[in-house]
Amino acid sequence: MNNEFQNLKEQCLGCTKCELCGKRHNVVFGTGNENAKIMFVGEGPGEQEDLQGEPFVGKSGQLLDKYLSLIDLDRKENIYIANIVKCRPPMNRDPKPEEQDICIEYLRQQVKLIKPRIIVCLGRIAAQKLISPDFRVTTQHGEFTEKGGILFMGTFHPSALLRQESNKPLALSDFQALRNKIREEELL
Ligand code: URA
Fold this sequence. Notes:
Blueprint: H1 3-13, E1 31-32, E2 38-42, H2 47-52, H3 59-70, E3 79-83, H4 97-114, E4 118-122, H5 124-130, H6 137-140, E5 144-147, E6 150-155, H7 158-163, H8 168-184
Parallel strand pairs: 2-3, 2-4, 4-6
Antiparallel strand pairs: 1-3, 5-6
Bound molecules: uracil.
Uracil binds next to loops.
């Protein structure tokens, strides 16, 4: 891990800028390859992530890993995974706008250091924060939008897919579109 990234991580692990710090077991900073060309961004840690300190390690993470492996991506090797907020919101509620606004500064710094070409937003919260405030996953999933030299794509949150399995084929087609984009851009 390079120095700047390590410093950022240490700063984030000690963060007390919002009330979410009060009940956390761990700050979930992010995981993966810091030189990855592809990043995935979720909403915020759930129970398992809070306990283990890693993003997407619960049931939704298992589903995410399955989709990743279908397109030859691996969370340790060629992607980086982070969240909009780094501490678990109580009872898995949506992170409040003010919590997102405070915490997104860490994500901005992560993106600045990692320099991904593609960011995949997992679910509404991430897509509305990073792509557009009126982003609708049901109608805009799988579309690529370029902003500041980064291609953004929003897709279904894995937890939403566990609740509504009928959307799984749509999510799969988003991952296939991602694979095509990765090839087109010669990122791997
Ligand atoms: N849901 C998220 O949005 N992020 C995680 O890390 C885990 C579950």
